[in-house]
Amino acid sequence: xxxxTRAATTQAPRVAAxxxxxxxxxLGKFKEPSFSKTWLMDAGTYPIMVVVGVASVGxxxxxxxKCAYCPSVRITNKTRGQVIRTWK
Length: 88
Description:
The chain is mostly helical. The protein contains four helices and no strands.
C-alpha cells in the first residue's frame, strides 16, 4: 500500500521536466491567432460555418413565421386579452 501511495503522490521525471519547460516561456511572446487565420484560412472549418449559417437562417425563418402567422403569438396590446378559439 505504501508503494502505491508513494507512486501516486510523486511526479515522474519526464512530467516534471515538461512542466518546467512550459512554465519558463516568456509571457509576452505568445500572440492569440486572429479570427481570419483561425477560421477562414482552414478549409476544415467551412462545413462548420455552413451548418451554423443554415441553422441560423432556419431558426430565424421559423421565428418570423410564428410571429407573423400563428394566432397564439400576440405582439400588440389590443390582442393580448383575447381568448384563442380557432374552431369557431
